[in-house]
Amino acid sequence: MAIPAETFFLSGEQETTLQQQIQQIVSEAILSGRCLAGEKMPSTRHLAEHLGVARITVTNAYTELVASEYLTSRGRSGFFVAETAPQRPILAITERRSSAQIDWARKISQKVSDALPIVRPANWRDYKFPFIYGQSDARLFDHRNWRACALKAVGRKDFDTLATDHYERDDPMLLEFILRQILPRRGITARPEEILITMGAQNALWMTAQLLLTQRRKAVMENPCYPGLRHILRQSRCTLDLVDVDQDGLPPERIPQDADVVYTTPSHHCPSNATMPLARRRALLDRAERDDFIIVEDDYEFEMSFLKSPSPALKSLDRSGSVVYMGSFSKSIFPGLRLGFIVAPEPFISEARALRSMVLRHPPSHMQRTTAYFLSLGHFDAQITRMARSYRARRALMEQSLRQHGLTPAAPETFGGSSFWMKAPDLVDTSKLAMDLRQHSVLIEPGEAFFAAGDESRSYYRLAYSSIASARIEEGVALIARVMEDHLGAPLPDRE
Amino acid sequence: MAIPAETFFLSGEQETTLQQQIQQIVSEAILSGRCLAGEKMPSTRHLAEHLGVARITVTNAYTELVASEYLTSRGRSGFFVAETAPQRPILAITERRSSAQIDWARKISQKVSDALPIVRPANWRDYKFPFIYGQSDARLFDHRNWRACALKAVGRKDFDTLATDHYERDDPMLLEFILRQILPRRGITARPEEILITMGAQNALWMTAQLLLTQRRKAVMENPCYPGLRHILRQSRCTLDLVDVDQDGLPPERIPQDADVVYTTPSHHCPSNATMPLARRRALLDRAERDDFIIVEDDYEFEMSFLKSPSPALKSLDRSGSVVYMGSFSKSIFPGLRLGFIVAPEPFISEARALRSMVLRHPPSHMQRTTAYFLSLGHFDAQITRMARSYRARRALMEQSLRQHGLTPAAPETFGGSSFWMKAPDLVDTSKLAMDLRQHSVLIEPGEAFFAAGDESRSYYRLAYSSIASARIEEGVALIARVMEDHLGAPLPDRE
């Protein structure tokens, strides 16, 4: 590939000649690794035109650079970066850069990287037994039809939709499908003005915190909970109260009276998968009305209720408009899609739309339209059915293997989902266990990340089966049990 | 299309029988417009299974609903929503909803919708003479190759890239191209750790405000400036100082000494298109170093410098690391893509990455990979060349028409770009002019939105030629001149 002339600029320094300046910028480009050995240099004519200098000046500079072995001349083919060109070690570049005088620790007013939850290694797909949560399984994904929908969405007919930044509104086709097909399955009726497309559930949660919380307000969070939410709420600097969940999820009677916003996962609590019974849902809504707080309902993974019919969303029972509901396609399509939605009263949605517009304008139109086609052509429903069938089989295998090897879930569940919330013997530190298991190519999620604090959290862990092949489950579970026994220094009590 | 059984839920109320509950949820679904006339109801067997009731209960409920004309029975084909089914007017639904007791004005802690800049009508493509800025022109876009790249990016080979939410890093292929091909054209050398992909320039600007500003810090903005930036800085609640630009852009000597962050568009000022000369750039960088402020350089539309070779970015002269640089593909590909990038010292980038991860995780992988292919296969360069050629021709036509009809640019320019910054006679209010021009199917951008305040701003306006066909330019300009003369009550002085 030829190096474009446009990548060279004169420094404009008065002390050096034009020819010297050209020699300097070319050698600098080679030393910095920007121009690689063997690449073709711009022709003398092109470079002279671009820099606005006489061609002979460039020719003289190139000749000098050949003499100093930065370039080679191949006759009529032109000039190339020499294979023997001098190289500056990467370190030197770093050094030059790090001599910057800016004190960034002082310049940065909002330090976000503190306590950023890290759940899995970037190369998790290289692990043989990835019991990790929330990633898509290429074996279950309807790749062919997704591809067909992507192609359709990039067609000429849809060009305006694709190209324009219509931040005032979302893709009407996607909205229509969510309103008419997705929300009714959760028992929710909504108007187009009551829904906003987001960059996944994470983005939706973040927006609620921005719009509803301040330093003087109080948020209530389930304990344990989704680590991404804790990160958001800590950054918002609001007062934060934790309420321990029980086997029915969040107990409404334990919510403090001065709560402003209550975050909850009633359909299946994250990470324990507990489902909140109807009576408790009504009690929660009554509390919200009486004590005037807003409920944020994260209805993630609602599609995966294959063990029994899903309970309708809390939002479907909401008469006073106190529930801000959110769903996501991350689990049912794939997380790299970054699409979710918020359903809430119009005054909230219009502010959320303004916030979204300021922060990022809108989720890319192409992703919205591709998803709209995938949903409306029926591929989504087929995909969910296929996933549910596969998860059901994997879950049965998991249950059998867990029992066989003496590993015990923390609580009974009835929902389905894609993971088990597990409890190890008290003496086991699952964070250490997880690190050791990596040596055996096993990935598990230690409980620590889900809890606010406290040592008792360290014996919990999550085992997901959404990314692991059925054929690997038994061997993986056996490895977990074996390494756990090493940690305990004793056999697991419940091993069959 | 059949209505899925999964969209019905029992209310669980004790006072009514199961059959009554079923009648109620079905009639409610029809009244609310969720189930439409002619649609097929779930079979009695399916609905009974889903609700966990006896089939006869559903059959009895359906029979009652037929009697009350909500449903019709078509023998073996099953039950359908009756064409004569009662309908509740939309208003009633709205009423029920708006009876909510929540006082959202009080609940919402951060009101973002105030002063949200509105630049163009949503249906701008329906206007015959759209002199509006920043939207893509379908006639110039290489749709065929973009489509091929989108298809390639959704291939099986790239599935992991597409599906995973790898928020730790950006698409390595896209990064590589930006580092090796885009940045060098701006004179910038950077390492992968010094760059972050963003959801367009808007998202990049927003992140700098989040990370660098607080209520106790001072931001400096050019006047006039990009309205989206003013919205962001006002929301950040920092102290805000405006510095009037002159024909060379931002004058460094007028920057207050206590500035913390200075926002600037040196390559061509927005909206006047002034280019900052080299000497002034050096003076600006010297000031930044002496007074310890950060410069945010918005290098939007740098590809469109077709009148002369572009000047290298301010960032390329930055020795102390005080410049946070941002670019975007919105103008050169299309704005609905929502992709841009920040180049800055590593400590800043790592915080920006953490912030992005918290707010939205990452720009969708598919958009990143499609763009990477479009760039690396050479389509991007071809596209820019084609756009520049077309813009050059349109610009010449514009200049000729403007001269002919007595409309005058506010300042001479040398860069290129895609718009003219115009000055009407002092008596003309361009906001009113713009509203009147809509009647003639002409869209212009009044100056008001670009200025902080002051009545003198009202005689400025922007005319962009990136979305208007060459053949329409002369007629559109003539219309602007005619309506302007109506406003003035006199002929324009400079008309040829």
Largest interface: A-B, 111 and 111 residues
- Assembly type of the chains comes to homodimer
Structural class of chain A: alpha/beta
Tell me about the biggest sheet of chain A?
7 strands, mixed
Bin the strand percentage of chain A: 5-15%
Instruction: Tally the helices of chain A.
Output: 16
Strand order of the largest sheet of chain A: 4-10-9-8-7-5-6
CATH superfamily of the largest domain in chain A: Type I PLP-dependent aspartate aminotransferase-like (Major domain)
- Mean of pLDDT of chain A: 88
Keywords (chains A, B): DNA-binding, Pyridoxal phosphate, Transcription, Transcription regulation
Protein name (chains A, B): HTH-type transcriptional regulator TauR
GO molecular function (chains A, B): DNA binding; DNA-binding transcription factor activity; pyridoxal phosphate binding
Family (chains A, B): In the C-terminal section; belongs to the class-I pyridoxal-phosphate-dependent aminotransferase family.
